[in-house]
């Protein structure tokens, strides 16, 4: 592994725990640039895991260890950073905020039991941020909101809180408020304690004035709003009456109800935090360790047998049957394959044999596989650093090395009771990149490296196009493609990209006649075959029909299938631009044979020549594939999307509007969709999504031959 200890001041690593109650798995979610990685770095420092805080700009942070992340100065994959606080092991999971890496985000959420949703105090809440919030909401992920970078010169903490409440809806309520004045700190609305960070971390705690103000907001009014929100989620129906009657509610009971509301995903406390000054870090750690659910309180995913048979529901029981999932795969030049694993049930122990299963991603280049592997060592992962641990119990996360068959999304279980964990939802890659080796001798190595890269990233799809002879890597976007290519090159392969070629089709636009004559006399046994055909176009998708209208035996019956075979072979090769010919009917109407020199091979050749002659006598046109495209876009961008689809020669089939979002359906030539994934994101500020499915072939423009994409 890469050892950054010297330059990053690493302290001791978090060790294994034996009780799921002592674990908190927390994923950090938020837009690119919101400060997630920097916040984790600060938490690592104040918890004692680091002696010195790294920098995103300098490429010295624990989580942004991938060379692509350092180059782009943004996270490109998930990373684990365990810390301990008050006897609780907190597995912090950093995730990318850029849309290209939503697959990594979903993997991080799969490994977690709760989320810290990080937004910058100076940036507001844009549509891309709302989309990330909806990613969490779609799986009912418990979450709190962190207002980060509160020391920014344009920071507006209270304004950002209001923006979050408006964008994310009910349940987003401040738990702490910033303090006015020269002594930086926060006011706890439940505890009514004020933290003073003027002397650094940890803060000094003093009693707050209940009637005071914080940044021009009355503390008492904000506290009332918070407590009323907690009471609304409480199962104690007497709390509201007691509170309105002036009774002082028990702080511990309020915190218990807060934890329950957060666990349900219906209540989202907001806390301001500054990674650089340390303000809010103590409060954030307290919220995570006391207010976030443990693995025991978060329902694990469903499992089945490897054949799809029903299986008992999982529980976070260290003594239960083993069921774990590979949430991330990476390659290290020294260690080899590293699998980051979330254990849902049972306990992973070293020097044991496990069963590794991966099913359901064949269409993305991940063949179904089952294998028994021996786990020799178990590690606690912190960025690139691995620290060996004696075991990993249900609810915890760990790293395994040299488990050769393991790919991202695979299930690790007992050989005696193999199971499959229900996979998380994978986004569809829609940007094709044709990859070629610069050196002729590197083709095999390129294929092997591509397989390794795809094994670690289920959002990639590898397509070997037999018609164009291209290796096409389908990616989520330009940044995703850049990361994939950099990982290929890191494997020692000199690769480049070329234009993706769209496979076209040929057909006849009208009837034609053709004559095929294959006669050769060279002394000895000759070759003799003559046939006459009529060709007519069929409806799109009809395929190929062969009709025999030979009368009088001018072509013996045994040679008529030979003519058809020769025509079919020529259909596959094409007659104009080398693309397969489709949707025609060929009628064999006449011919000649020789009693000695006619043969199967001769009539195959004559059939092919007859089709070529018909093409020369008639009119052959090109067909291009049309995809049905479904675009989901906010209403304000519908006009832009419709205009763009028209410019791409698309035909709009319909538009449906629902609650501020429109769904546009259109048929669009595949040649016009090569860059659509990035161009749609650009024209809609990242707010639109789309899917595409093959529809049919239709006539292409007259000037189109072997079209290539730019």
Primary descriptors:
710 residues, alpha+beta, Rossmann fold, Elongation Factor Tu (Ef-tu), domain 3, Alpha-Beta Plaits, 5 domains, eight-stranded antiparallel sheet, seven-stranded mixed sheet, 16 helices, 38 strands, 25% helix, elongated, disordered N terminus, elongation factor, EFG_II, nucleotide-binding, GTP-binding
Describe the fold and architecture:
The protein is of the alpha+beta class. It folds into five domains: 21-226 and 266-291, P-loop containing nucleotide triphosphate hydrolases (Rossmann fold); 303-421, Beta Barrel (Elongation Factor Tu (Ef-tu), domain 3); 431-498, Alpha-Beta Plaits, CATH 3.30.70.870; 505-618, Ribosomal Protein S5, domain 2, CATH 3.30.230.10; 623-699, Alpha-Beta Plaits (2-Layer Sandwich). The chain is 25% helix and 32% strand. Strands 19-18-24-15-16-23-20-21 form an eight-stranded antiparallel β-sheet. Strands 2-3-1-4-5-13-6 form a seven-stranded mixed β-sheet, with helices on both faces. Strands 30, 35, 36, 37 and 38 form a five-stranded antiparallel β-sheet that branches. Helix 7 (219-233) packs across helix 9 and helix 13 (560-573) packs across helix 14. The model is unreliable at 1-12 and 706-710 (pLDDT under 50).
């Amino acid at each position: 592994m890469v050892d950054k200890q010297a330059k990053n001041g690493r302290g001791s690593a978090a060790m294994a725990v034996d009780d799921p109650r002592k674990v908190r798995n927390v994923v950090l979610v938020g837009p690119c640039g919101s400060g997630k990685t920097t916040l984790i770095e600060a938490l690592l420092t104040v918890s004692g895991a680091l002696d010195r805080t790294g920098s995103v700009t300098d490429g010295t942070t624990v989580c942004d260890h991938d060379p692509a992340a350092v180059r782009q100065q943004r996270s490109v994959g998930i990373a684990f950073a365990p810390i301990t606080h008050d006897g609780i092991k907190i597995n912090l999971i950093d995730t990318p905020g850029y849309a290209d890496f939503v697959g990594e985000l979903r993997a991080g959420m799969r490994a977690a039991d709760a989320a810290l949703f990080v937004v910058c105090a100076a940036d507001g809440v844009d549509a891309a941020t709302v989309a990330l919030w909806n990613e969490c909401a779609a799986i009912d992920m418990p979450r709190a909101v962190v207002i980060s970078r509160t020391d920014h010169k344009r920071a507006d903490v209270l304004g950002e809180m209001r923006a979050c409440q408006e964008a994310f809806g009910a349940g987003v309520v401040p738990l702490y408020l910033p303090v006015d004045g020269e002594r930086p700190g926060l006011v706890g609305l439940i505890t009514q304690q004020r933290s003073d960070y003027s002397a650094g971390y940890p803060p000094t705690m003093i009693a707050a004035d209940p009637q005071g103000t914080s940044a021009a907001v009355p503390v008492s009014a904000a506290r009332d709003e918070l407590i009323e929100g907690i009471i609304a989620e409480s199962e104690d129906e007497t709390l509201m009456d007691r509170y309105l009657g002036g009774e002082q509610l028990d702080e511990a009971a309020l915190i218990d109800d807060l934890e329950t509301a957060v666990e349900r995903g219906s209540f989202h406390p907001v806390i301001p935090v500054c990674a650089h000054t340390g303000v809010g870090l103590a409060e954030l750690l307290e919220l995570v360790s006391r207010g976030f659910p443990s693995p025991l309180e978060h329902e694990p995913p469903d499992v089945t047998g490897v054949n799809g048979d029903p299986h008992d529901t999982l529980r976070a029981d260290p003594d239960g049957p083993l069921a774990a999932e590979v949430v991330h795969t990476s390659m290290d030049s020294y260690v080899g394959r590293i699998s980051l694993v979330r254990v849902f049930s049972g306990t992973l122990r070293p020097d044991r044999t496990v069963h590794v299963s991966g099913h359901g991603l064949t269409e993305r280049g991940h063949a179904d596989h089952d294998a028994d592997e021996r786990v020799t060592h178990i590690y606690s992962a912190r960025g690139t650093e691995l620290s060996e641990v004696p075991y990993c119990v249900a609810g915890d996360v760990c790293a395994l090395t040299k488990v050769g068959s393991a790919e991202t999304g695979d299930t690790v279980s007992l050989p005696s009771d193999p199971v499959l964990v229900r996979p998380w939802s994978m986004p569809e890659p829609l940007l094709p990149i044709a990859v070629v080796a610069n050196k002729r001798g590197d083709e095999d190595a390129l294929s092997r490296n591509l397989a390794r890269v795809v094994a670690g990233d289920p959002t990639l799809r590898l397509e070997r196009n037999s018609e164009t002879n291209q290796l096409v890597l389908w990616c989520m976007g330009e940044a995703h493609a850049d990361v994939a290519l950099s990982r290929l090159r890191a494997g020692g392969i000199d690769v480049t990209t070329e234009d993706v070629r769209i496979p076209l089709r040929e057909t006849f636009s009208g009837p034609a006649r053709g004559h095929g004559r294959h006669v050769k006399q060279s002394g000895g046994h000759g070759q003799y075959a003559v046939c006459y055909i009529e060709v007519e176009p069929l409806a799109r998708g009809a395929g190929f029909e062969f009709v025999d209208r030979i009368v009088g035996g001018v072509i013996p019956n045994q040679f008529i299938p030979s003519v058809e075979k020769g025509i079919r072979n020529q259909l596959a090769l094409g007659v104009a631009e080398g693309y397969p010919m489709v949707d025609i009917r060929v009628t064999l109407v006449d011919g000649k044979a020789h009693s000695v020199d006619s043969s199967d091979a001769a009539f195959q050749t004559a059939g092919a020549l007859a089709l070529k002659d018909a093409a020369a006598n008639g009119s052959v046109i090109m067909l291009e594939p049309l995809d049905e495209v479904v675009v989901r876009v906010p209403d304000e961008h519908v006009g832009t999307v419709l205009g763009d689809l028209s410019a791409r020669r698309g035909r709009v089939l319909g538009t449906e509007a629902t609650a501020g979002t429109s769904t546009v359906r259109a048929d669009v030539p595949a040649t016009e969709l090569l860059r659509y994934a990035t161009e749609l994101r650009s024209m809609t500020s990242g707010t639109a999504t789309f899917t595409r499915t093959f529809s049919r072939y239709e006539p292409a423009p007259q000037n189109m031959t072997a079209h290539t994409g730019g």
